[in-house]
Amino acid sequence: QVQFVESGGGLVQPGGSLRLSCAVSGIIFSAYTMQWYRRAPGKEREWVANIRASESTTYADSVKGRFTISRDNTKNMVYLQMNSLKAEDTAVYFCNTYYRGRLGDWGQGTQVTVSL
Fold first, then answer.
1. Rounded to a whole number, what is the largest CA-CA distance in the chain?
2. Angle at 58 between CA 52 and CA 60, to 5 degrees
3. I need a surface site. Which of 50, 61, 83, 97 has the fewest CB within 10 A?
4. What is the dihedral of CA 76, 31, 99, 9, to 10 degrees?
5. Residue 99 neighbours by CB under 8 Å, 6+ apart
6. What beta strand segments (E) does 8-90 contain?
7. What phi, psi does 31 have (nearest 5°)?
8. Beta carbons within 10 angstroms of residue 96's beta carbon
9. How far is 83 from 65, CA to CA, in rounded Å?
10. Tens of pLDDT along 60-111?
């Protein structure tokens, strides 16, 4: 069973940076495309970015040029470096992957709050 443990969130001022981490277990990590999602207050969960086994990446338009996804296959970790943060980036952030044709069970996520 695939499991995710997200960390690294916090309170940051607009324009600031945070680096999120996600520890993944239960899969051959290096073979999977890893995803980051977020859920803002009162909104549906939305996709943010992914990184393939080849390490090619794709981003949502809303974060392109500000966020960078990366992975460390030796540690089964996926990261999200978030720069130039905006109030609209406030959300709970989750990592996940498609495992056996569906997204895995969600972890607890990590809260990111961008505010003065």
1. 42
2. 140
3. 61
4. 30
5. 2, 27, 32
6. 10-12, 18-25, 34-39, 45-51, 57-59, 67-72, 77-82
7. -90, -10
8. 24
9. 9
10. 999 999 999 999 999 999 999 999 999 999 999 999 999 889 999 999 999 9
